Amino acid sequence: MKHILYELLVFLRLKKRTIPNDNEILGYFRMFYLFLSAGMPVKESIEQCKVIVSPLMQPITKKILSKLDNGDDLELAMQETKVFPKYITDLVEAGRKNGSLKDIALEIIFFLEQKIDIKRKVNSGLFIVKIMSFILVVLIIAAFIVINKFKEILNDTKGELPTFTKLVLDFGDIVSNNWYIILFFVIVLLISFKILKKQYREKFDSLMFKVPIYGPIYKNLSFYRMSRIMSLTVQTGIAVEDSFEYASLAVDNIYFKNFINKIIYNLNKKDMLFKDAIEKANEEYKLLDNSFILILVAGRKSGNVKVALDSCAADYKRKLISLLSTVSDKVITPALFIIFIIVAIIYAAIMLPINNIWSSAQMMSK
């Protein structure tokens, strides 16, 4: 919630952005990788980055250099900035210790590029949902304004108003006369929702996978990220069993995190086989496709775990893009139907008495 409010204030230019985004972190790692590739030592590479990176990353780079001067390792210096996710700093640590920091930096670059690309596609795919929601809100507000404008005219007409028009006008009166009560009720609902969400976080997070239209998108996006992070960690020489821990660190959804942690718990049992550990967790949480389990087990058996994980990530990405391409078709039809109903109500409420007035005027003229 705080992150959403922060982004909104930045978008409205009411607050200056102080937290680097994924694009700026990506730019940082690109420069870092290029200087490492040119043969520069780690500290000198970071010193060069200080001049080139974005303005928001410059003070962060200075802080990293200060920590390095004090004898801290690179990953600890990066952790102190509280900008880099823990799974990234853990990967940097693994790369530093086994002498493959340059390769790790390249893998992090690829991961961030894919993350940004997917985020852009998701935002683009859901843009129509935001637009239609905005149109509906504007239309509902406009409906009350139009009805209230015609109210005095309709009340001054001779004769009885149609029952339907009376109902619409009465409803408009209720809303306009009690708007503060309605607003209070909405605020109470939002606060109650926030409190309940904290108390039942796992239950609420589990619903994210079941919401119509958005649920399948969220599920494929979650497993795409998990596959990519596991692939990234396996690339550094970390065992696939341990890669689940890094995937758990990168997850915000409590239900999904608990699912991964359940896999980790099962893997730590001495008598539990790799495949059984995942299947047992999946029986409880019902999130994974059997194909992912079979492909991962086959990749582990053949020694091609990274290839298997990359294949799964690519498959989840294809499914995600396919789902996003159908969002507009699933949203536009019901949204247009609601818009049609609102317009029809306004038209009927206003035009019925106007037609009566017109008919009465014609009869009087005769």
Automatic annotation (TrEMBL):
It is a multi-pass membrane protein. The keyword Electron transport does not apply. It is found in: Cell membrane. One of its GO terms (cellular component) is plasma membrane. The keyword Transmembrane helix applies. InterPro entries: GspF/PilC, T2SS_GspF_dom, T2SS_GspF_sf. Keywords: Cell membrane, Membrane, Transmembrane, Transmembrane helix. The chain crosses the membrane at residues 125-147, 179-196, 331-354. Residues 29-147, 227-353 form the Type II secretion system protein GspF domain. PANTHER family: GENERAL SECRETION PATHWAY PROTEIN, TYPE II SECRETION SYSTEM PROTEIN F-RELATED. Belongs to the GSP F family. This is Type II secretion system F family protein. It comes from Megamonas funiformis.
